[in-house]
UniProtKB/TrEMBL annotation:
Stretches assigned to the G-protein coupled receptors family 1 profile domain: 40-290
InterPro entries registered for this protein in UniProt: GPCR_Rhodpsn, GPCR_Rhodpsn_7TM, Olfact_rcpt, Olfact_rcpt_6C-like
Organism domain of life: Eukaryota
Name of the featured protein: Olfactory receptor 9A4-like
Membrane topology annotation: Multi-pass membrane protein
Key words, A-Z: Cell membrane, G-protein coupled receptor, Membrane, Olfaction, Receptor, Sensory transduction, Transducer, Transmembrane, Transmembrane helix
Organism of this sequence: Odocoileus virginianus (White-tailed deer)
Residues that span the membrane, as ranges: 25-47, 59-81, 141-161, 197-221, 242-260, 272-292
Subcellular localization: Cell membrane
C-alpha cells in the first residue's frame, strides 16, 4: 500500500512495536519523563531569572541549556506520545518531517556547543579564578550563547536540504518514532554516497569539535585539582565541575552512539533505544544532576518556595 513512490509527500511512522497495553505503559512512562523534564527546566529558568545569587556565567549558560532541552524534547516527544495513542501508524507531511528534523538537529548542535562553553567556563573558574570575572564577563557570555544558537541553526541547513532532495521511492514508512535522517536514507533510491559521507563527516565535526574543548578543559582542571594540597580543597574544586562533567559523559555517549554511524542501516531497535536516551532520559536526568548537589541553587530554591508559601499563607 505504501511502496514504490517516486516522490513521497508524506511519511508513516511505525513507532514502537508491541500490544496496545504495552503502548499505554510506554505512553505513561514517557509522558511522566517529559512532564518532569519540562517542569524541572522551567524551574531552573525561573530561578536563574529572578534571583541575583544565580547571576553568574555558569547559571546563565545553565538557563540557556534548559531552554534548549525543553525545545528539543518538545519538537519530538509530543508527536511520539501521540503516535502511541493511535491505533495505526502516525502520518506526517513531508514539510512537517523536514521541519522536525531541522529543528531537532539545530537545537542539538547548539546544545553541544553550549556544553563546550560550560566546560571552558569551569576551566577558567578552577584554573584562573582571579581573572574569572574579567574573562567570563556578561558581554563574552552573551556572545558565546548567541554564537551557539546561530551556528547550530546555520550549520544544519545543508544537511537537511541534502536529505530532503533525495528521492524516496522505496517506501514512505519510517521505522522510527520521529523523522530520523538515517532512516530517511534507507528509504532513498538515490545512491548518494557522497552526500551520506558528507553528512557523516559533518556529524563528526560537530561532535568532536565541541568535545575537544571539553576534553582539554577537563585535562587542565584535573591537573590543577591534583595540585591542591588539602583533600577538602580538592573536593570543593571538583564539586564545581562534577555535575557538568556527569552530564557531558552521559550526553556525549548517547550522541556518539546515535549520530556517528557510517552504516545507516543499523537495527531499528538500536536507533529507538539510542534516540530515547537522547530525547527522553537525558533531558529528564540533566536538571537534577545540575541542581540537586548544587548548594547555592538548592538554597535559592528553598528561599523562593518559602516566599511563595508566605504569600499564599497571607
Amino acid at each position: 500500500m505504501l511502496k514504490n513512490y517516486s516522490s513521497a509527500t508524506e511519511f508513516y511512522f511505525l513507532g514502537f512495536p508491541g500490544s496496545k497495553e504495552l503502548h499505554n505503559i510506554l505512553f505513561a512512562t514517557f509522558f511522566f519523563f517529559y512532564s518532569v523534564s519540562l517542569i524541572a527546566n522551567m524551574v531552573i529558568i525561573f530561578m536563574v531569572c529572578i534571583d541575583n545569587r544565580l547571576q553568574s556565567p555558569m547559571y546563565f549558560f545553565l538557563g540557556h541549556l534548559s531552554v534548549l532541552e525543553m525545545l528539543t524534547t518538545t519538537v519530538t516527544v509530543p508527536l511520539m506520545l501521540w503516535g502511541l495513542l493511535l491505533p495505526g501508524m502516525l502520518v506526517v507531511s513531508l514539510t512537517a518531517c523536514c521541519t522536525q528534523l531541522y529543528l531537532y538537529l539545530s537545537l542539538g548542535t547548539s546544545e553541544l556547543l553550549l556544553f563546550a562553553a560550560m566546560a571552558v567556563d569551569r576551566y577558567v573558574a578552577v584554573c584562573n579564578p582571579l581573572r574569572y570575572t574579567i574573562i567570563m564577563n556578561s558581554h563574552t557570555c552573551l556572545w558565546v550563547v548567541i554564537a551557539s544558537w546561530v551556528f547550530g541553526f546555520l550549520f544544519q541547513i545543508w544537511p537537511v536540504y541534502a536529505t530532503f532532495h533525495l528521492s524516496f521511492c522505496k517506501s514512505n514508512v519510517l521505522d522510527h518514532f520521529y523523522c530520523d535522517g538515517g532512516q530517511l536514507f534507507k528509504l532513498s533510491c538515490d545512491k548518494g554516497r557522497f552526500t551520506e559521507l558528507m553528512l557523516f563527516l559533518m556529524s563528526i565535526f560537530v561532535l568532536f569539535g565541541s568535545l575537544m574543548p571539553t576534553i582539554i578543559s577537563y585535562t587542565y582542571i584535573i591537573s590543577t585539582i591534583l595540585k591542591i594540597p588539602s583533600g577538602s580543597g580538592r573536593w570543593k574544586a571538583f564539586s564545581t565541575c562534577a555535575s557538568h562533567f556527569t552530564c557531558v559523559v552521559i550526553g556525549y555517549s548517547s550522541s556518539l552512539f546515535l549520530y556517528v554511524k557510517l552504516n545507516h542501516t543499523q537495527a531499528a531497535e538500536y536507533n529507538r533505544v539510542a534516540s530515547l536516551m537522547v530525547l527522553v532520559v537525558n533531558p529528564f536526568l540533566n536538571p537534577f544532576i545540575f541542581t540537586l548537589r548544587n548548594d547555592k541553587f538548592t538554597e535559592v530554591f528553598r528561599d523562593v518556595m518559602r516566599s511563595c508559601y508566605q504569600l499564599l499563607k497571607d
